[in-house]
Amino acid sequence: MGVGPADVAGDAFQDLMPFNHCWGCGADNPAGLRLKSRWSPDDPEVALAAFRPRAEHMAGPRHVLNGGIIATILDCHGVCTSVADAYRREGRAIGRGDTIWFATGSLDVRYLAPVPVDAAVELRARVIEHGERKTVVDCTLVAAADVCAPSIRGACSPSVAAGSE
Amino acid sequence: MGVGPADVAGDAFQDLMPFNHCWGCGADNPAGLRLKSRWSPDDPEVALAAFRPRAEHMAGPRHVLNGGIIATILDCHGVCTSVADAYRREGRAIGRGDTIWFATGSLDVRYLAPVPVDAAVELRARVIEHGERKTVVDCTLVAAADVCAPSIRGACSPSVAAGSE
């Protein structure tokens, strides 16, 4: 357990991505969640992120993590894994050369079990399909007790315009 | 256009639901988005909500609404429409008698077009399937220019425990 910054090597994807003002993960958005994703040191095909919710991120009941926050961090971790994967396939460091960006085309979340709001959660993502116009990422949220919580497939279309601002 | 509080009759679902601390829509969560949903005055099967994003709710590019925020308000509007529908089917006002609550089982969002962050969005939900253990809600987000943006089907399972806190 414990996928924190000390456990995974290298700078976070988000810290290397230019023009990322995203509420969920943008290094350039001080009011956002500021999710950080990195390649796993144990499996180069897997990207990891840890997220510690704030108390206000509760669902209807106070002790459960909000489903919208869960969807947000799954989406951000999936998109940023797509971006990091695309740079890697081109043999470039993230943020070097022409900007690569993806926009989510669809987001399917299965909520399998309640996630406690008072502990860090782990996210694990893997690109399972990549093409000219679509990349598909499997992303899973694991709660503190090793119970798999939601999982997701996010289909991301490469986006050119997003990096231009 | 303009589905605001003045355009739809009655108190918001969320203001009548007890124990709702939800980050997306809870009246009891001052730090959250505080989404408000109401039955349409024109179609009793449709629930409406208006949401005005804050600037910080941007996606990677500054002018686009974040996909996680979109998922959050679609989810909240869908769940609260399920709750309101369930009370109505039992002939009770929302919040009267035993508490009815739903937890989202799955959330499928299709992002059809970018949504501007600097204008209010409209949400329209309709229960399309209801059973003992599952309710399905179609929910659509409409952006300022009348362009349909994402749509969703959220399958919500009735939850007993959520109302007990």
What does this structure look like?
The structure is a homodimer of 165-residue chains. With 165 residues, chain A is an alpha+beta fold. Chain A has one domain: Thiol Ester Dehydrase, Chain A (Roll), CATH 3.10.129. In chain A, 16% of the residues lie in helices and 30% in strands. The first copy, chain A, has two helices and six strands, in the order αββαββββ. The first copy, chain A, has helices spanning 13-16, 67-89, and strands spanning 37-39, 46-51, 101-110, 121-130, 135-142, 148-159. Chain A has a six-stranded antiparallel beta sheet with strand order 1-2-4-5-6-3, with helices on one face. In chain A, strand 1 (37-39) and strand 2 form a beta hairpin. The longest helix of chain A has 23 residues, at 67-89. The radius of gyration of chain A is 15 Å and the shape is globular. The termini of chain A are far apart. Residues 1-9 and 159-165 of chain A have low confidence and may be disordered.
